[in-house]
Amino acid sequence: MLRVGVLCLVAAALAALLTTGTGHAAGLPSGERQVGQALVEPAFDDMTGGLIYLLTPIHAPFPAKANDRSWEPIYVVVYPSSSTFGDLNCMMSPNNCPDHNGVVDQLARQINPNGLYSNGTKGHDHILHARGPPGGEFNVNWEIHLILFTDAQASQQRLRTLDDLFGPSGVVTTGKAIDVDLELAFICAVVPARVYARGTPVVGQ
Predict the structure, then answer these.
(1) Crossing angle of the two packed helices 101-111 and 2-14, in degrees rounded to 10
(2) How far is residue 199's CA from residue 38's CA, in Å, rounded to a whole number?
(3) Quick one: three-class SS letters along 74-117?
(4) Spatial CA neighbour of 127 closest among 184, 182, 176, 72
(5) I want to staple 150 with a disulfide (CB 3.0 to 4.6 A). Which of 43, 109, 113, 164 is the partner?
(6) 187, β-bridge pairs
(7) Is-contact 124 76, C-beta < 8 A?
(8) Which residues contact 205 (CB under 8 A, 6 or more apart)?
């Protein structure tokens, strides 16, 4: 039932009308930018923790229709409203990733481990494997995993790598967060920073 509800929520969000705005939070780049008929947003390389940028065609089919054997995980680390970070990849205020912020927020409130998301979310980061060594194979079909904190103190730590999630002291390994596999995938590709830089910021209501 949760899987069906997730699909309906995400599909509805992707159909929402986007409006353009200006600026983003100080610090690291934050928020989607529109370049032609595509959206570009920041993320972190799961091996190095370095910034990368993801491009998703606006009219790409969702969920992705590719065989699930070609999927790779993208970890969406969701920070509760009590988090102090102001430069997450996507922020709820201002709503700078309006095509999916609302869905992520609703799911976090619905699952709500230990009540940490009762007041909603501050925003979220994306962690995935960019093309090239070190690491595994690279595809453009990304299976969505929500990382939801179960420990308030842990939610004040910025997570940027697989080791931060699943290493010996990682938040999932130590039970300070849970990994929720939505069993849905979408299409995106890693692009250079210059593509993001020339885009128009996107901000929703």
Answers:
(1) 160
(2) 9
(3) EEEEEEECCCCCCCCCEECCCCCCCCCHHHHHHHHHHHCHHHCC
(4) 72
(5) 113
(6) 141
(7) yes
(8) 19, 95, 98
Q: How many domains does the chain have?
A: 1
Looking up tokens 């179960």 gives: 150
| Residue 6 and residue 182 in contact, taking contact as beta carbons nearer than 8 Å | yes
Cα 176 off chain centre by? 19
Which residues on adjacent β-strands are paired with residue 147?
A: 77, 179
Which residues partner with 90 through β-bridges? Answer: 124
Report the C-alpha gap between 18 and 96 in whole angstroms. Answer: 10
**CA 160, 198, 91, 173: dihedral to nearest 10 degrees?**
-20
Domain span including residue 117: 2-201
Instruction: Tell me the DSSP string of 144-179.
Output: EEEEEES-TTGGGSPP-SHHHHHSTT-TTTTTSEEE
pTM of the model: 0.83
